[in-house]
Amino acid sequence: MSDGESKKLLEYRYDENGNISEATGNTGTSTYKYDNSGNILNYTDIFGKTINYTYDERGNLSKLEVAGEPPTVYTYDSEDRIISVIYGDNKTVSYEYVGNTTITHLPDNKTIVEKYNDSGDLVDKTYTDNVGNIIYKISLEYDGEDRISKRYVVLSKDNKESDTKESALTDQDTLTASSENVLSVEDTVSDNSGNNTDFIKLEYRYSYTDNSQLKSESITGDIGTKDISYTYDNAGNRTSETIKTGDKEEVTTFTYDESNRLIKKQSPKKTTIYSYDKNGNRISATSDGEKFSYTYDINDNLTGIKKNDVTIFEAIYDAMGERVLTKELNSDGTLESKYRLNDVSFEDTQVLSVYNDSSKTDLIYGNERTVELSTGTESIFITDEKESVLGRI
Fold first, then answer.
1. pLDDT (average), residues 326-347
2. Which InterPro entries match (predicted)?
C-alpha cells in the first residue's frame, strides 16, 4: 500500500481549541466533544455507542454514563482523591486515606488495605473477606535503588481464581519470565478466628545487574526452592534463562538479529523461530511444525493471528488506533465477535465494557481497575504493585 493510499484511510477534524472532534478510518467514524478546559464531554464510537462525562467544579470526573445504562458516579475529598465510586444497582466502592495507608471498602464488606513507604512505593497490600480473613496478601521490600528486592505472597486456596478470563492470543512475545505461578506451595496458618485455613505461601528474592536488569530470582516455599538466573548481551537483550529446581536444571537461550529482534528461542523442550516485517512487527513464530502468523494494519496494530492455516484471532481498530472489536476462535471452531467500548477520559484509554449478543462484561475503575461485572456475576480483581491482574475473588 502506498503512502497516498494510506493517508486516504484516516481523516481527522478538530474543534476551535484544537481537540480532535471527529476521527474517520476505513472502519468507521468516532466523535468527541470537549469542554473549554479540554475535558471530554461526549464520545461516540464507530458502532454508535455513546458515553457522556460530567465533571465537578474542580475538574474531577463526577459521572460517567453510557446511554441506556445506570451511571457510574464519583466523589472526591479536598485533595481530589477518590472517596467513592457508585455503580450498577447502587453498589459502592469507597476509599479511606490514613497517612501512608489507603483502605478500600468493597461490596459485600471485603476490604483492601494498601500501605506505602515515604517514597510512595507499595510495601503491603492485603485483601480480606467480610469477617477479616486474609484472601491475598503481598509484602514488598526495596533495595537502595528503589528496586524490589523481596516479595512475600500469601494466598488463600479457598478464594483462589487465577486470571484466565482474558485472552492471551495477542501476546506474541513468548520471551516472558513470569514467576508468579512457577511454584505452588501449600502451608497452614491461622486466620483471625483461630481456625486453620490452607494458604499458598511464597517468598521471592531478586537481584539486579548494574543496568538494573533482573539478574536472578529465587522462589521459596515449604516444598522447595526454584532459582532463576538471566544473562544479557551488550545491547541489553536477555540471552539466557537458567531454571534450577533441586537437582534439575533447564537452560533457555535467546538469539537476536542486528536490529535486536528476537529470532530464536531454544529451550530443552522446543525451538521457536521468529520473523519480522520491515516495520519490526513479528509476522511469524514457528516451532515443532506449528506456525503462528501475524498480520497488521497500516498503523502496525495487530489485526490477525493464524495457527497454521486457521484464523484464531482478528481485531478491528478505530482511526485513533483503539481496538474496538475482536474475534476469537471458540471450541466449536467458529470465531466469536466481542465489541469493546472504550473509556477515553483516561490518559491511556481503558476498556469500559466487552459485549456481544449473548454476553456483556463491564469494568469499574476507582484508584485502579477494581470490579468486573459479567453477565450474572460480579468479581473483584486481585492485583499486584503494578496493578497487573493476578486473579479474581
1. 96
2. T6SS_VgrG/RHS, TEN-like_YD-shell, YD
